[in-house]
Amino acid sequence: MEETFLFFDIECANNIKSEGYICSFGYVLCDKDFNIIEKKDIVMNPKVPFDESLLSPNGPCQLAYTKEYFLDQPDFTFYYDELKALLTAPNRTKIGFAVENDVDFMVCACKHFNMDYIYFDAYDSRSLANKINGIQNGLVSWMKFYNQDISSLTAHNSCDDALMTMFLVKNICKQQNISLNSLFENQNDYLRTVIDNIESKKLKLYRKYMTHQIYNLYGHRCLHAKSRRLKGKIHLALNSNRDLEQIYEINSVIYENGGILVKKIEPSCTFVMEDDRPHAEWMDMPRYSSVKFITLKNLFDTLGKEEPPFKPQSKDIPDLEEEFQCYMQS
Known about the structure:
Elements: E1 4-16, E2 19-30, E3 36-43, H1 67-71, H2 76-88, E4 92-96, H3 99-112, E5 121-124, H4 125-133, H5 139-145, H6 158-176, H7 180-183, E6 191-193, H8 194-215, E7 233-237, H9 244-256, E8 260-261, E9 270-273, E10 292-295, H10 296-302, H11 321-329
Helix pairs in contact: 5-6, 8-9
């Protein structure tokens, strides 16, 4: 089976709590020589209220159709099988512009409509164009950069945006004197995947959950401390790549041994930093003259304990979506 190339673009009716709601999926399917096999704009009812600014001629990015037209269409579930077939066909390379957003929109749509995730990957033409030319542009600006005629196209019409994405990649191939089927070979830096998107969301939610747990220890003294070896206010500055469970445990040790954890540096507090953190010039500023700077090892030496070795964040992250929602509402 010959390789095919799917250029696609997604438009959303609204973004609610950082989740986009799809109202159109446009695509252009072509062969390795950019001969168009098929192109289509799949318009759908998003099943959420529209962001009215997207329907206004004076808005930042007016949608291509009227609200009434969108609402007259079937929703995502009607097109699910068609979209899955498009995105998972064998020997097919998928390409978008700022495609990490489109990957996220598909993940959100499957979640909103309680459908199985469609697992696919896609290359990002924006990052590639930016890297090759050393500048950053939007899609229409790239068309101007390459003197590409788009007078017959409409921005934010998904199918037309997909066609512009194809034009962009075609111009890059010409500029680099390379074929389409060779352009993205060994270019995983430009690859965006559904799996990575889902894992990123899990980590973000996990970080939020653990941050809430950690901050519950802040701003007050432990009434049933194991010891009072630590005195006063303590500001902890740990490597953000540490395992979150370990960060929580270190905070707990300070809390359970008499320290009062604070989020910001305060006068006369103790600033605890990683052992390998270099001394910074700001530490010598007069406003911090009353602050005591120590390392994590110094802290654990004071407690007569062994300093825990650095543990990077585990990739085995629990799925806390339901638990987190309950926790936030409690």
